[in-house]
Amino acid sequence: MSYYKIQNFEQYFKHYNKSVREPRKFWGKIAEENFTWYQLWDKVVEFDMAEADIKWFTEAKVNIAKNCIDRHLNKRGDKTAIIFEPNDPTEEALHISYNELHQRVCKMANVLREKGITKGDRVCIYLPMIPELAVSILACARIGAIHSVVFAGFSASAVASRIIDSECKMVITSDGSFRGNKSIELKSIVDEALEKCPSVESVLVVNRTNIPVNMQEGRDIWLQPLLDEASDNSVAEIMDSEDPLFILYTSGSTGKPKGMVHTTAGYMVHTAYTFKNVFNYEDNDIFWCTADIGWITGHSYILYGPLLNGATTVIFEGVPSYPNYSRFWEIIEKHKITQFYTAPTAIRALAKESLEYVQKYQLSTLKVIGSVGEPINEEAWHWFNDHVGGKRCPIVDTWWQTETGGIMIAPISFVTPTKPTYATLPLPGIQPVLMDEKRNEIEGNQVVGSLCIKFPWPGIARTIWGDHERYKQTYFSTFPGKYFTGDGALRDEVGYYRITGRVDDVVIVSGHNLGTAPIEDAINEHPAVAESAIVGFPHDIKGNALYGFVILKESGEYRDRENLTKEINQHISDHIGPIAKLDKIQFVSGLPKTRSGKIMRRILRKIAEGDYSNFGDTSTLLNPEIVDEIKNERI
Ligand code: WTA
């Protein structure tokens, strides 16, 4: 019996129980039957949760890029691997076959090697959503270099801090990027970032927008001529299961971003298996995930998951509102998309526009539609179901994280009955538990608690780059012996999970994880600012927006508040990126603090939400009078 594809609900329970009782047999069989290995493992899994030390498929040898491409060539070399849909709808879409992808990745691998990149080196990839992004990632994987993709909306200082943290030797970027009717000068952002990055020896530049760029002699080089010269023959590196595959930075509730490290074999098995099941992927399906490859969703479900299954996957360069609000629906019709995977924030934004935008297009090719990144509210769920899925397509509300590598809790399409706003049941191999404040596991149904996972799964991140202690502290110390997700959840009467949101200081804005601490750090660097506190508050489209409470220094007191507000937001944009801008800024004379000096964010959150009903216990506040002042001046 094969465990790779779950056929019906009864079988789901069988596989699930097997995966809990005999995880080694379960994952071992999936791994053995569905991938190409140079050498099989000693042990399927080995772990010590207290030390946050987890290994899957120990001692096995494998190359994930070969599993994504080479092993499909005999059977489906001419099949389209990647459809590239450019920002400008009048520019022709590209269809890249598996054969062509193989050729392009091999050439790129040779260019990287010629530039001195070898196994274990870190390569920062700062590119728009163009084929070269996929090719660069896969070429790194082919030669065993560790890719660190940085979302091409981050500012120079955010890029710099990520490059510095992982000591990247190379940056791959482009002259610029097209996003809707805007273009962004990526190369000049990289130039600014590299002023602070001594580890970078070379920069490869893709020509995308044809804008003039500054090329630093001896460091910067145009990519295309190198590719033209390169051979398309390249031997893949033999990687150990636990060799790092990539680093991807995610916000934390404190300080600097965390470089989550994903390794090779476990990530491969997890993303392939979840892609196949959650989306019910079948041969000839055309899968479209609208995320950016700069986030984990793009890594796992634009590239690795689909390619490991020999699927056709879409890379879309643009935005849903350009040239108008029909763009998504037009693309679904044009490319005959069968699975469409997007985010609640995009659904809400499009649902706000006239229905005509969506009704004009044929969406009948769709089989499954999916949501990821934040809780999907009931209204958005129904709009998605009625107008996109035509009430025929199951909605897979997929809960997971950068840290988990792949989907964890989600319906299996055509298997698990869906329920609006519920991510439903854990996938086989995933053992969620809800914990109470006393750190006890909450048994039974109709309960709420902090969501933890009590047994390792193959896709879990193994560490934070350069800081295993922080990894241990962040994820394995709150509830000893368990992985803590940072999310709260409820379990309904039949055992379905609904994720209620973050229980820490991470706010999800438009599906992007933003730690409040780094934004506060950025604001506090503004010369007029003494101190600040950021909280999230509900927003119709973005899900959450940011509300900043700012104390000014004496010198800032007499300045024009409107200008200051603009300056602070510009400052955030420069330090982090436009996604972290604040919707509201209130200047205050103090912040509610405990006697130990901690800002009581709970109160600020309530004020930002406009809910003055129950501030809870304020007796530990050092300055209770400030609460009324802040409340009365709320914007
Ligand atoms: C939230 C994105 C509710 C959650 C893959 C999680 C969700 C964080 C869902 C991770 C969902 C993601 N329902 N909340 N279906 N999916 N989240 O690392 O708070 O960008 O912890 O990974 O997004 O965000 P990240």
UniProtKB/TrEMBL annotation:
Residues 70-462 form the AMP-dependent synthetase/ligase domain. It holds the Pfam family AMP-binding_C. PANTHER family: ACETYL-COENZYME A SYNTHETASE, ACETYL-COENZYME A SYNTHETASE 1. SUPFAM superfamilies: Acetyl-CoA synthetase-like (SSF56801). InterPro entries: Ac_CoA_lig, ACAS_N, AMP-bd_C, AMP-bd_C_sf, AMP-binding_CS, AMP-dep_synth/lig_dom, ANL_N_sf. It is an enzyme of class 6 (ligase). GO terms for molecular function: acetate-CoA ligase activity; AMP binding; ATP binding. Belongs to the ATP-dependent AMP-binding enzyme family. The keyword Ligase applies. It comes from the Bacteria. This is Acetate--CoA ligase. One of its GO terms (biological process) is acetyl-CoA biosynthetic process from acetate. Residues 519-598 form the AMP-binding enzyme C-terminal domain. Residues 12-68 form the Acetyl-coenzyme A synthetase N-terminal domain. Keywords: Acetylation, ATP-binding, Ligase, Nucleotide-binding. Its EC number is 6.2.1.1.
